[in-house]
Amino acid sequence: TDRIPVEWVAGFRGIRITNKINLGEKMSDIESLMQGMNISERISFLEEELESNGEEYAEGYLEEKIERLEEEIIEQNVARRQKNIELLNQQKAVNGVTLIDKYKEDYETALSSIDVDIKQLIEQGHDMKGLFLFQENVVKILEIHRILDSLYNIIFTQQEVLWHYNSKRISQIGHDLIRLRTQVTNLSEIGPEFVERLVSGNLEEVGYNKEHWYLKPVLINEIEYLLEVLPLLIEPDFIPFEQNTDDDTTDPKTDRYISKCVKISVWRRDCGKCVECGSQEKLEYDHIIPVAKGGSNTERNVQLLCEKCNRQKSANIQ
Questions:
Q1: 62 or 57, which is more confident?
Q2: If residue 20 lies in a helix (H) or strand (E), which one and from where to where?
C-alpha cells in the first residue's frame, strides 16, 4: 500500500498526531482515539476530520460511521426514555401524586399559559394583562427550575454514597447522571456559552432537544430532564425538610399533624424558602395561627419558616 504523509488534528480532544501511516493504519488509529468518547464526541470528531482530511479516506467511510453513530443515538434515546416512562407509570400507579408530579403540573400549566393564554390576551387587545401574566409565568418556570435543580444537585454531588451502598434508585436510570449547568459552572475558565452548548449536547444525547420561541432550549430541556429523572431518584413519600419539624406535626395522632398533601402544597406555594427572610436552610413547617389558639392544619394556616425565624416568632407569641 502506498504511504500517505498525514498531519491531522483530533480537535475535540486537543490531540495532535503527526506521522506517516498508510490508510488502514489511519482508520485503526481513529478507532483508538475515539475510545472513551461518548457518541456525541465521536460524531463531532468525525465531522471535523471529514471536513479537514476527508479526501484521505475511502469514499463514504467517514460519512457512514457518522450516520451509524447518529442512528445509535436515536435507538438508545428511544430505549432509555421508554424505560423511564414505564418506571414512572408503575411508580405513579402504586404511590399516587408526588412532590415532583406537582411541580410538573405547575410547569406545564405555566408553559401552556405562555403559549396559549397570553397569545389570546394580546390578540384581544389586552397587552398589559398579557405582559404581566407572561412575566408571572416566566418567574414561576425559573423558580421551578431552581427548586428541581437544587434537589438534583444534592443527588449528583453525593452520588458516590448512593453507588457505594448499591442504591436501587440511581441504578435504574438508563444512563449516568447528566452534568447540568449547576454542575459545570464550578469548572474554571469556561464561559457561559460553552457551558450551554456542552449541557445541551449532553441532554440531546439522551433525547432532550425541545425548543421554545422565548425560553432558552437549555432551560427547557433541563427542566424536562429533571421532571423525568427526579421521580425515579427521589422516594415518592419524600417531603422536603420534614425531619426539621416538630414530632407532633408528623404524627397523625396529634392535633398539630400536617398532612403530606398540605406540606407539598405549602412547599410549592412558598417556593422552598422561608417566607420571612428567604433562607433555604433549616426550614420548618409552621402554623401561622398556633393550634392552641384555634389555628387549623390546612394549607392557608401553614407556612415555611427557617429555624431562626420560627424561634423568633414563637418567642414573640409567648
A1: 62
A2: strand 15-21
- The widest CA-to-CA distance across the chain, in whole angstroms, is 94
pTM of the model: 0.66
- List, as own/partner pairs, every contact residues 22-28 make where C-beta atoms lie below 8 angstroms and the sequence separation is at least 24, other chains included: 23/56, 23/57, 23/58, 26/56, 26/57, 27/57, 27/61
Return the sign of the alpha-carbon dihedral for residues 212, 218, 220, 221: positive
The closest alpha carbon to 203, from 314, 42, 40, belongs to 40
All three cell numbers of 209, joined, read 432537544
Using CA atoms, how far apart are residues 267 and 124, in angstroms rounded to an integer? 35
DSSP H or E segment with residue 263: helix 260-269
What gap in Å lies between CA 173 and CA 286, rounded to an integer? Answer: 36
CA–CA gap between residue 264 and residue 299 (Å, rounded): 9
What distances in angstroms separate CA 42 from CA 15, 57, 63, 70, 275, one per listed residue? 14, 17, 12, 10, 49
Handedness of CA 195, 201, 207, 213 (dihedral sign): positive
Distance, CA of 101 to CA of 251 (rounded, Å): 24
| CA distances from residue 123 to 110, 127, 147, 215 in whole angstroms, order as listed | 19, 8, 33, 21
For the segment 152-204, what is each residue's pLDDT rounded down to a tens digit? Answer: 999 999 999 999 999 988 988 867 889 999 988 656 567 888 889 989 988 88
Residue with cell 408553559: 111
